[in-house]
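Hi R.,

Here's the input for the magnesium ion complex you asked about:
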Amino acid sequence: MQKVEAIIRPEKLQVVKMALEELNHAGMTLTEVRGHGIQRGITEQWRGRSFAVEYLTKVKVELVVADGDVAEVVDRIIEAARTGEVGDGKIFVTPVTSAVRIRTGERDDAAL
Ligand SMILES: Nc1ncnc2c1ncn2[C@@H]1O[C@H](COP(=O)(O)OP(=O)(O)OP(=O)(O)O)[C@@H](O)[C@H]1O
Ligand SMILES: [Mg+2]
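And here is the predicted structure with magnesium ion in place:
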C-alpha cells in the first residue's frame, strides 16, 4: 500500500474528485492546508514590486491505495490538476505499512 498525497489548487478539487471517482476508489481524505513552494508564496506583482503572500491556501487530497493502483491515481491527479502555471501543486507518495477497517477488523488491502 502507498499513500498518495496531492497538494492541489482549491479550484481544481472538483475535477480531481471526478477523475478519481472514475477509478472507483473507495476512500479519500481532504484537508484545507496552507503552504508555499519554491516561489515562497510570492505571487502578486504590482508596479514592479513583489508582495509576499507567505502561505497560500491549497487542498490536500490523501488516498491510500494498493501498490498496483498508484501509477493510475497519480496520472489522473496530474491530468486533472495541471494548468501549467506555477502553483499547480505537488504529489508525494509514501509507503504505508498497515491499514485496518475498524468496523470489521479487515487488514491491509482488504481494509482499503
Ligand atoms: N517540498 C515541499 N514539501 C512540502 N510541501 C510542499 C513542498 N513543495 C510544495 N509544497 C506544498 O505544495 C503547495 C504547492 O506548491 P507549488 O506547486 O507552488 O510547488 P513549487 O515547487 O513552487 O512548483 P511551481 O514552480 O510549479 O510552483 C505549496 O503551497 C505547499 O503547500
Ligand atoms: Mg510554486
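One thing worth noting: The beta strands are 2-8, 29-35, 42-46, 49-52, 56-65, 89-95.

Cheers,
M.
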